[in-house]
């Protein structure tokens, strides 16, 4: 399993540097290194939303993907309590580190989705949440102090489709249509261990057809460059053909063929989560984390956020022209205006806080280095 | 009658129940299932024979149940259908020149398919069973049980049993209808340990240890439908067909039907009914009166 770090091949070899000294060598070929160093220092962040009916294994899958246990103290409601429950939005943030690279991972959970008897508009709290994050970012971007904007926008939404149906259910279609222009949707077939390979194939085809039929725009994997090697292109093709991924998650480690693997133990056999012949978990993990994480963020910023922003500005300018006021070049959002004094104070305090946080980080690093 | 959201394997299970050891004279099943807009009721009749004994089996399927976004009152068409069958029987019974053997289209047993989420019952399941356990014998089943490991199955069953108890849902075999001690102990055991049965259905055969068995072939093993360590299909089949079939019919006739009849006659002031069907009963505990 080769993790395709295309980036790696373009890093400059120090030996080559010396050889190029004869030619017209300016030296900006080291830019990728510099970017790399800066990004690693700054750390990365990623916001992932999981949505789908309860009982489809969402929490287990998230735990399996990131090898952490985010749901230790969760209390499951019984059916009667769920009759009148509304959809909630829960955020868990966890800082994980791997080989010196820090990732601030935020998981947005949506308990209660699709559980009630009457699920009309049950996706509304979710679309509202996504819009709120866009609005927050928009305000921050248009604000005066833009140094340390926190990006809480949702970069990817994993939507869990029940394997017990014959394809997409009405609630699935409505949810995806409400969100496909706001967030990258990656549909998944949950609990795929209850399906045999033939059934999985049929279900995937059916879902792909229905996605086309209803005009749902799920996240499209970008085409790889034509100069990539064959192996990478092959992997890319396989990836595209396996969508939607049929996944299985597990929090337990079982013994299979003398090895300890993450899996599920049944009387008739052991399902291994990381076995590509058993499910598409590995493909999902590679796609989500190892190859396309940055692309997901880019599409969120360049496409979904820009759509939102354009829409917002259009609305504002149409309102302004209605009121016959002068258009200002920078769109000014109607902010609930505190007076300038308190604003200055708040900004100063913000900056202080950030400086202190940076110092704390530096001190932590120094202690670790020692 | 088999009930539950689409895709829970109802058709496959019915096939398996009556095809596994019975002659294959049944009509072919329509596998192309599209989600209908309202709950439909499809009844298909078969005559099956075993050991010289003939049985007319009618399977009633309810595609569309629980599939919409708004599922409020989606059990009403079903309740209406069941009451209509009681009404038909009642009319025949009170006829002046009535047939010797009244054609019995009443629903004797309702298999309710619970989705194997592993957490608990869904609100829709609760609502349905609350309303319908008053009019028909409900046998809850956990569908597609091959998605749960043994521990998950045990936990889920316990939780489901508890939820049914807490909500006062009496599934078949109902406690109040146990006739004697022998029945009670036998049924208690079934109620508290085996039900709801966790089943897997299949109509394909595979070779396992030199025998041909019904099962599902996965990359990690073959799930045998009739193997008790794999799932409880055999228990369900024995329960519904071999031991309690007659009892299901008797409870339907002596209790559910009589309750319907009593209500009907009371509403009519003790007179035999004219036109119309009784509206669905409110979800309150029904009086155990048997008018005679």
TrEMBL record, chain A:
It comes from the Eukaryota. Gene3D superfamilies: P-loop containing nucleotide triphosphate hydrolases. GO terms for molecular function: GTP binding; identical protein binding. Residues 42-315 form the Septin-type G domain. Keywords: Cell cycle, Cell division, Cytoplasm, Cytoskeleton, GTP-binding, Nucleotide-binding. The record marks 164 as: Important for dimerization. GO terms for biological process: cell division; regulation of exocytosis. Its main location: cytoplasm. GO terms for cellular component: plasma membrane; synaptic vesicle. It is found in: Cytoplasm. Belongs to the TRAFAC class TrmE-Era-EngA-EngB-Septin-like GTPase superfamily. Septin GTPase family. Septins polymerize into heterooligomeric protein complexes that form filaments. Filament-forming cytoskeletal GTPase. This is Septin. It comes from Vombatus ursinus (Common wombat). The lineage of its organism: Eukaryota, Metazoa, Chordata, Craniata, Vertebrata. The gene is SEPTIN5.
Automatic annotation (TrEMBL), chain B:
It holds the Pfam family Septin. CDD domains: CDC_Septin (cd01850). Residues 1-267 form the Septin-type G domain. Keywords: Cytoplasm, GTP-binding, Nucleotide-binding. Its main location: cytoplasm. GO terms for cellular component: cytoplasm. GO terms for molecular function: GTP binding. Residues 265-292 are annotated as: Disordered. It comes from the Eukaryota. It is found in: Cytoplasm. Septins polymerize into heterooligomeric protein complexes that form filaments, and can associate with cellular membranes, actin filaments and microtubules. GTPase activity is required for filament formation. Filament-forming cytoskeletal GTPase. May play a role in cytokinesis. This is Neuronal-specific septin-3. It comes from Vombatus ursinus (Common wombat).
